[in-house]
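Re: the request from the purification team.
They wanted to know what the chain is likely to look like in 3D before they choose a buffer screen. I agreed to run a prediction and write the result into the notebook, where they can find it.
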Amino acid sequence: MNKPSFGHIFMNLAADLAKRSHCVKAQVGAVLAKDTRIISIGYNGPPSGTHNCDEEWPETGCARDSKGSCSLALHAEENAILYAVKNGTRLDGATLYTTLSPCLACARLIYSAGVKQVYYRYSYAEYKGLASDEGVDFLNRFGVATEKFVE
């Protein structure tokens, strides 16, 4: 019997979590793990208890900020990190699996939280039409091994 690796399980879970997102524009999921254990999960959307974009603005989604991003949403990585911190979970040495490579702001948060490795399925730069994946470049530059997940 051919068993999937934990990396595949975590990345598939991130993809399933993305389906929980209420964002009209993009659905992103994230899983934080240590060794073979899940320590936190997240998906993109507005802060818990505020509203659901797909219900309030089903055609357009929430208002855009000056960079064309959701003005109300937390990114999947932010939600996973914030949930872990809120519950007293240490992130030093954790690995992050996310369906979209981290933006620069999330990369700074990932680095500061002590995450040691990041795997992503799709490129944020390609999604946003940017020249490079600034978040990936930042993380690799400062010692957080970040790479595209090999299926």
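For the purification team: The CA atoms of residues 29 and 147 lie 16 Å apart.
Please add any questions underneath this entry.
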